[in-house]
Amino acid sequence: xxxxxxxxxxxxxxxxxxxxxxxxxxxxxxxxxxxxxxxxxxxxxxxxxxxxxxxxxxxxxxxxxxxxxxxxxxxxxxxxxxxxxxxxxxxxxxxxxxxxxxxxxxxxxxxxxxxxxxxxxxxxxxxxxxxxxxxxxxxxxxxxxxxxxxxxxxxxxxx
Length: 159
What we know:
Elements: H1 7-10, H2 12-24, H3 32-46, H4 49-61, H5 66-71, H6 83-96, H7 105-114, H8 117-139
């Protein structure tokens, strides 16, 4: 396997700005439980093992149930998610894999029924941020679990 570069070391200013964006997300009007779902679903869709591993551990630390974590890929059929959570997952999917015709009005309308304008904006920035992290970690093949100690993820008991 080809050794990939360390993007944090090579582009420290960009990395710092990405971290600032992620830290700003903690001030979001959208509840943390939904942000965990969003991070996990986008990471699943993008095949980002590093981010998927990290966000599952964070969700567990913050009290998310294992069954709900298992149900994220089948959220449409699952009875474990409420309408607001389902709207956030639908918004995540459409913005992660934007179709050629753009975002359909019916999806936006479903999201608009569950979130305020400020929440939709904050949610969209969260989706944008996780997609950017996914692209970095997929491109440079970051190893899942390699930052557990640095991010305090050993508390999840999943390492």
